[in-house]
Amino acid sequence: MPDHEADGHSLIAKYLRQDRLPHIWCPACGIGPALNCFLRAIDKSGLDPDKISVVSGIGCSGRVAGYVKLDSFHTTHGRAIPFATGLKLANPELKVVVFSGDGDLAAIGGNHLIHAARRNIDMTVICINNFNYGMTGGQVGPTAPYDVRTSTTPYGNFEPPFNLPLLLYASGATYIARWTVLHLHQLEGTITEALLKPGFSFVEVISPCPAVYGRMNKEPEGLDSLKSYEKRSIIKNGADPKEVDITQNGPIIVGKFIDVDRPTLHGSLGVVAERARKPTKK
Amino acid sequence: MKLWRTPFDHNHSAEPLAYVFIDRERCKGCGFCAEYCPRDVLKMGSELSSKGYQLAVVKDGSKCLACGFCELICPEFAVKLTINNKAHSEIKP
Predict the structure, then answer these.
(1) For the domain with range B15-88, which CATH number is right: 3.30.70.380, 3.30.360.10, 3.30.70.20, 3.40.50.1100?
(2) CB A142 within 8 A of CB A102
(3) How far apart are CA A71 and CA A50, in angstroms?
(4) How many domains does chain A have?
(5) B19–A21: do the CB atoms touch at under 8 Å?
(6) pTM exceeding 0.80
(7) Distance from C-alpha of B6 to C-alpha of B3, rounded to nearest angstrom
(8) For every one of its 93 residues, what pLDDT tens digit does chain B have, with 9 covering 90 and above?
(9) Within an 8 Å CB–CB cutoff, is residue B49 touching chain A?
(10) 8 Å CB contact of B53 and A22
(11) Radius of gyration of chain A (CA)
(12) What is this model's ipTM?
């Protein structure tokens, strides 16, 4: 028999700081499977790990930057994308990945998210969407569906939520996909494609949050959330982003929604820089 | 399984020798692996870990066909699958 305990899980040992495990995430958190898919996607894409940097914001998913064995930075709240933009502008060779949550990206960093998509900066954004602010005790988030209960809306959420794929589509992102943490093989393939796609790519991962969101919404165990995803998800690749909004108990439309080509920021910057360098005729 | 004669296609069509290992220190008993194992190899045991979580255990390792879903879905990076003494992720399709 092989020595299973001694030889490390080769891929995990390659990309994850194993000395930091066990991680701080609650039992049945969806960030672990999403991170696992991301690590496998790096391996599958064939990119040089030394040329990948991971930036994350504040929140549970912000811890990812500390766990990966890549160049990474844990930024202030909502400012993961500005930091990543600067990183990419300063060193265009880098593949910049932003790994953060819905509260960090869509609420506090919402402005940065739409402007990064508008500029079409070559970066990959992985958004863990658990519909609330999990780390601080389950306050209502910008993606919380109408009528769900959270610790700040105990009688039901009265605000309409963001439909992230539609928001990103309207802003000009070139690659938009959504999966739940049950669609792991698809998620792995999508993140691989997103990493290799030039331009702004956005992958939304619907994730259970049993400790705070689930407990308030009749899904106290992570398995309850997964079973609910199993029942509710409909795979519809190429779906219109207008039709993919999430309601409390309605269907969750998953798949790769948008994959288009647009000139990236570096491409158009190069054209203008070339024009500026040309001597003007008098 | 004992073979009287080695079939000529044995090398590429035999079931892989898979071995599932669950790290008892990392498992937090979420039950994802046991619920979504397509071959019912894993189940939730009655034993508790040192931190008080209910541990997942291997029920019948011989049924495993090494799909690798348990390894992928484990939020704790606690499941490790080896096939023919190689890590699952090392094997390219």
Answers:
(1) 3.30.70.20
(2) yes
(3) 7
(4) 1
(5) no
(6) yes
(7) 6
(8) 677 888 788 777 766 678 888 988 889 999 999 999 998 899 998 999 898 999 999 988 888 888 889 999 999 999 888 887 666 666 554
(9) no
(10) no
(11) 19
(12) 0.82
